[in-house]
Amino acid sequence: MAHYFLPPRRGPVASRAYHVRGGEATGLVVGSYRAPGQRMAAAAAGGGQEGAEVGEEPPPPPLGEKPRRGAAAQTISDDATSNLGWVYLAASSDWLQALGKLPLLQVLHLNDAFLPATNLNSISHVNFTALTVLDLKNNELNSCLPNWIWRMHYLSYLDLSSCQLSGSVPDKIGNLTSLKLLQLRNNHLTGEVPPAMRRLCSLNYIDLSMNSLSGDTAETKNLFRCMKMLHFLDVSNNNISGSVSGWLEDLTGVAYLDISMNLFSGQVPENIGKLPNITYLDLSSNTFEGVLSEIHFYSVSSVLPDCWQRVSRLQSIDFSRNKFHGQIPSTMVPITSLALLSLRENSLSGNLPTSCQSCDGLVILDLGHNSLSGGIPTWMGDGLQSLLVLSLRSNQFSGEIPEQLFQLHALHLLDIASSNLSGPIPLSLGSLAAMHSYQKGFSNMLPNFQRSNSLQFMMVHFHRWPYT
Question: What is the pTM of this model?
Answer without folding.
Answer: 0.70
